[in-house]
């Protein structure tokens, strides 16, 4: 008989799951949405919360239904796709995007405001990032419970800080909410929808979800049905926490323009807002916590990507991968936060639609009998437009691409992959029926049942 957990323990698990997604990087995007969207902030945040928060829970549940790892989930399309998608996912979660982004965010919020306007920013960033990533290597060298233990300390501190910051911004607002900027005048919801990609939380859920599944087995939760049930309960707590976090960040951004003006990135928005609200002490308050959340994010991501590559290329040890990815992350960090966000945009516009399509397919699996052709058709349909969006975002012939493919619904808003993914779905279904492909059903407990046609 399995243990029935009391609500207090479910709450603790939900907060632990929240801590896994609580990183320095995912608090910098909602403030920018708030600054740019102005009076359309809450419309834009509706879209942002779908991709930046709501899909996190669905991604973890999809993982439990799809085999427990991202590789098994993606293999439903094709083994080669699983390898390519997983490698891109882990590299983005590690040295290409998350580690440089996190390190740069910590610098922008905790260090840069203290250096003075006349400081050599590039030199300070190089010195800080070298020391910060060296600390990341040190803490990642041997697998310990450092991140878990520190996370339990950081979460309450961060919540207290947020309550203080948001409370002060409501009691003494920095300014009124202004008019939306050009890109948020029309299509604010879809713009927010694509901005939610940058939190990386859905992609991180594919990695951290597997870790979470393993960790709860020690609580006496064994069956897949019980695991899924616990995920839903704990996940709702996590979702509430993430919604509160992102909405609060959007409010700070929306109300900050009169006092601090428009900023180039969310790190600057948070740093300058903290100074405006609390004076000199504000930057020390938020800087300390951002530093701690940043180091835990870096350690978790560096360890995860190094363990993954040691698994697929065992001839290179975990510690060697740590060094390789740390050096790569250090180099990319020193391009600066704005450049990192710009360089990462094409990759995220490629990976996120594919991830969303995989989640949708897992939940709809039994409706189309789990036919592989449906998985393949949907991913091809989604992937074609996702690649075009990535090329556009990289600045390669965006006008020409829009002119040629603008007939696709929502294409110019970055959501054309929805229509082409659905077309691919139905083409795959027709092919599966004509070939009489075998069925692969998923039970409520997550078990697979294969049937010949």
How would you describe this protein?
The protein contains 18 helices and 2 strands. It has 453 residues and is an all-alpha fold. The chain has 2 domains: 328 residues, Up-down Bundle (Amino acid/polyamine transporter I), CATH 1.20.1740.10; 107 residues, no CATH class. Strands 1-2 form a two-stranded antiparallel sheet. Strand 1 and strand 2 form a beta hairpin. Helix 11 crosses helix 12 and helix 15 runs antiparallel to helix 16.
* Distance between the ends: 38 Å
Please give the CATH architecture of the largest domain.
Up-down Bundle
* The first-level CATH class name of the largest domain: Mainly Alpha
As laid out across the biggest beta sheet, the strand order is 1-2
**Assembly of the depicted chains:** single chain
The biggest beta sheet reads:
2 strands, antiparallel
Uncertain residue ranges: none
Count up the helices: 18
Short structural summary:
Strands 1-2 form a two-stranded antiparallel ribbon.
Present the secondary structure layout.
Layout: H1 7-21, H2 29-37, H3 41-65, H4 70-74, H5 79-96, H6 98-115, H7 121-140, H8 146-171, H9 188-195, H10 201-215, H11 224-260, H12 266-278, H13 280-312, H14 318-333, H15 337-364, H16 372-393, H17 398-405, H18 417-435, E1 439-442, E2 448-451
Antiparallel strand pairs: 1-2
Helix pairs in contact: 1-8, 1-11, 2-3, 2-11, 3-9, 3-10, 3-11, 3-15, 5-13, 5-15, 6-7, 6-12, 6-13, 6-14, 7-13, 7-14, 8-13, 11-12, 12-13, 13-14, 15-16, 16-18
What key attributes describe this structure?
cell membrane, 2 strands, 453 residues, Amino acid/polyamine transporter I, membrane, L-valine transmembrane transporter activity, L-leucine transmembrane transporter activity, L-isoleucine transmembrane transporter activity, mainly alpha, 2 domains, two-stranded antiparallel sheet
């Amino acid at each position: 008989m399995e243990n029935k957990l009391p609500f207090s323990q479910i709450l603790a698990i939900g907060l632990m799951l929240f801590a896994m997604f609580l990183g320095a990087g995912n608090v910098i995007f909602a403030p920018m949405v708030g600054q740019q969207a102005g009076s359309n902030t809450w419309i834009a945040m509706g879209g942002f919360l779908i991709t930046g928060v709501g899909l996190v829970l669905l991604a973890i549940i999809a993982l439990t239904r799809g085999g427990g790892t991202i590789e098994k989930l993606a293999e439903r399309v094709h083994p080669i796709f699983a390898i390519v998608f997983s490698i891109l996912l882990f590299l983005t979660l590690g040295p290409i995007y998350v580690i440089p982004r996190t390190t740069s965010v910590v610098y922008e919020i905790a260090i840069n405001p203290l250096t003075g306007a006349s400081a050599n920013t590039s030199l300070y960033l190089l010195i800080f990032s070298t020391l910060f990533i060296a600390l990341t290597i040190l803490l990642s060298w041997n697998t310990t419970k450092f991140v878990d233990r520190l996370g339990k300390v950081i979460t309450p501190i961060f919540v207290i800080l947020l309550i203080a910051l948001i409370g002060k911004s409501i009691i003494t607002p920095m300014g009124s909410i202004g008019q939306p900027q050009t890109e948020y005048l029309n299509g604010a919801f879809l713009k927010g929808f694509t901005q939610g990609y940058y939190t990386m939380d859905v992609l991180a859920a594919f990695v951290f979800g597997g870790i979470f599944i393993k960790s709860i087995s020690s609580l006496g939760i064994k069956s897949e049905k019980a695991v899924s049930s616990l995920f839903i309960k704990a996940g709702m707590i996590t979702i509430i926490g993430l919604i509160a976090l992102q909405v609060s960040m959007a409010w700070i951004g929306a109300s900050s323009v009169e006092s601090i003006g428009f900023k180039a990135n969310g790190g600057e928005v948070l740093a300058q807002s903290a100074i405006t609200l609390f004076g000199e002490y504000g930057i020390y308050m938020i800087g300390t916590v951002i530093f701690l959340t940043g180091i835990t994010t870096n350690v978790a991501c560096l360890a995860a990507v190094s363990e993954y590559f040691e698994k697929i290329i065992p001839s290179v040890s975990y510690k060697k991968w740590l060094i390789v990815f740390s050096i790569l992350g250090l180099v990319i960090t020193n391009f600066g936060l704005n450049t990192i966000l710009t360089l990462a945009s094409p990759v995220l516009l490629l990976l996120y639609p594919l991830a969303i399509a995989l989640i949708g397919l897992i939940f709809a699996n039994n409706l189309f009998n789990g036919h592989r052709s449906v998985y393949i058709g949907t991913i091809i349909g989604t992937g074609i437009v996702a690649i075009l969006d990535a090329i556009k975002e990289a600045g390669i012939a965006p006008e020409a691409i829009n002119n040629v493919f603008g007939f696709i619904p929502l294409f110019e808003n970055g959501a054309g992959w929805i229509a082409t993914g659905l077309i691919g779905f139905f083409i795959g279904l027709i092919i599966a029926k004509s070939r009489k492909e075998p069925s692969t059903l998923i039970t409520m407990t997550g078990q697979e049942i294969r049937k010949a046609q």
